[in-house]
Amino acid sequence: MSLEDDRDIRREGIGLRWPFRRTTLEKTLWTVIVWFVFGLFVLGPLATVFAFSFTSSVLSGTGTFTLRWYGQLFSQPGLYGPLIRSFEIAVIVVVFQLMFGTLIAYSTVRAKVFGAKTLDTLSNITIAVPSVVVGLSLLSFYGPFGPFGAITQFLFGNPLSLTWTLWILVFAHMIETFPYMVRSMAAVLVKLDTHLESAARSLGASRLHAFLTITLPQLKPGLVAGSVLVLSRSIAEFGATIIVVSAVLKTAPIAIFTQAEAGSLELASAYSVVLMVVSFVAYLLMSRWLLRGATIA
Length: 297
Description:
Layout: H1 3-52, H2 68-75, H3 77-109, H4 116-122, H5 125-128, H6 131-142, H7 147-156, H8 166-189, H9 194-202, H10 207-218, H11 220-236, H12 241-244, H13 252-261, H14 265-296
């Protein structure tokens, strides 16, 4: 083999190896940049809140590790009450949305009602409308001088008002979380084979029986995903709640706002960590359930 041939082989070897080296270098740079940006804007703030919840005094700058704020949070009814109330409202909202959101999604995807496309579009309206506007609209409608009061006075002789009650909070959270259940269910419904229902109907099954035995079992991924999204969104709901809430029915996000405004960043952080943990655990359970279902299928 001549010297010139040996040089050609070396050039070819370098040419073959260099793209892989370049790809590895680019991937490394992208990894550093993406993780840095993600950490700066997402993980960094969340980690700071987590650290503050275990700090004796943030404002002094000389705080030490402590569990004091969690001790206060779980020992004083005035502090853990908003947490319990938030979870209670979230569970009620999930139950209602499983029925109401599924009904709307099924009606729009399968065109069971006139104006199905319009209804599908309007089901997303609360994503575009500011939360405080939703809260004000509920306060106006269900207040003593709104349409709800006039209707109840006409029917029962006395005007009823839901202002400052638990139910106006439930309605506020339902309106705010409504699109998440509808979209989750619609995404599953559009992929279902309608011929299965038709086959069941042709064999003598009623519409209800076909829905319960054929369609509903296939909707489980959408039901679970929608429930977790609704639960997390309801627990964190603030904008509409602060308009309709009373001092007695304070929820966890309102308590966080109150504590932060009063300068107690540590207690506000403890509230926040509890909410984050609940939402994250719910998400993990949903992911494992869906993954197990996909593996079995």
